[in-house]
Amino acid sequence: MLLLRPLAVARSPASLVSSPVPRSMNMLKHDLVYLTEDASHDAAIEHINEEAFGPGRHVRAAARIREQGPHDLSLSFICTDDGETIASVRMTPVLAGGVKGHLLGPLAVRPSHKNRGIGRELLRIACAAAKRKGSEAVVLVGDPPYYGPLGFEKVAWNALTFPGPVDPARVLVMPFAADTHERLKGVIAWRCDEGTAAGI
User: Fold this and answer.
1) DSSP state of 199
2) Which residues have a Cβ under 8 Å from the Cβ of 32 and sit 6 or more positions away?
């Protein structure tokens, strides 16, 4: 596996590069490492997303936004266990009404590693990185009971227009400015973000 650049967030104790997590009482510890995504991870990420969401994932409204342009490699991360990619999160630059933000997802963890906090850690790392890069908000389509405790809030009903059907109750945002909700009105679409395609 190629040597990757270290996480920009590796300075904080909660995002140490190596984070041993017990597999079970009868098995050895996991050696989990969180890394920035690069092109060598594409096949593994595709497999993880296929396993998690199936072929129907490509017709979802959020997926249609992602098809409009590349995600930001510098804000997209993976988790490996003994060198195997077992989880992934991606960030896509979007203009959501009047907000220059990022669309989070897909976020997926292999079934063998679920319920260990890996998805939450990937989400935390990605959102923190987006905020540092100047993103005004992180938007996603997901379950409020899961994402609410992690800092996401409901967007006003039908405030954002997606390129396809979406349940307004599942459109959430992590705002980084006091007036974010006021400006989250209109179409949400991919935007060209300097350095996105190059992953810098």
Assistant:
1) T
2) 18, 19, 20, 21, 79, 80, 81, 118
Whole-angstrom Cα distance, residue 153 to residue 174?
Answer: 6
**How far is residue 189's CA from residue 186's CA, in Å, rounded to a whole number?**
10
Task: Tell the burial category of 186 from Cβ atoms under 10 Å away from its Cβ (0-12, 13-18, 19+).
Answer: middle
Identity of the residue numbered 84? E
Q: Tens digit of pLDDT for each residue in 74-117?
A: 999 999 999 999 999 999 999 999 999 999 989 999 999 999 99
Residue 125, C-beta contacts closer than 8 angstroms, at least 6 positions apart = 7, 9, 15, 34, 77, 89
- Other Cβ atoms less than 10 A from the Cβ of 113: the count is 19
120: nearest Cα among 109, 112, 110: 109
Q: Which amino acid is at 22?
A: P
Q: What is the pTM of this model?
A: 0.80
Amino acid identity, position 40: S
Instruction: Classify the phi-psi angles of 34: left when phi > 0, otherwise alpha if psi is within -120 to 50, otherwise beta.
Output: beta
Cβ-based neighbour number of residue 72 at 10 Å = 25
Whole-angstrom Cα Rg for the chain? 16
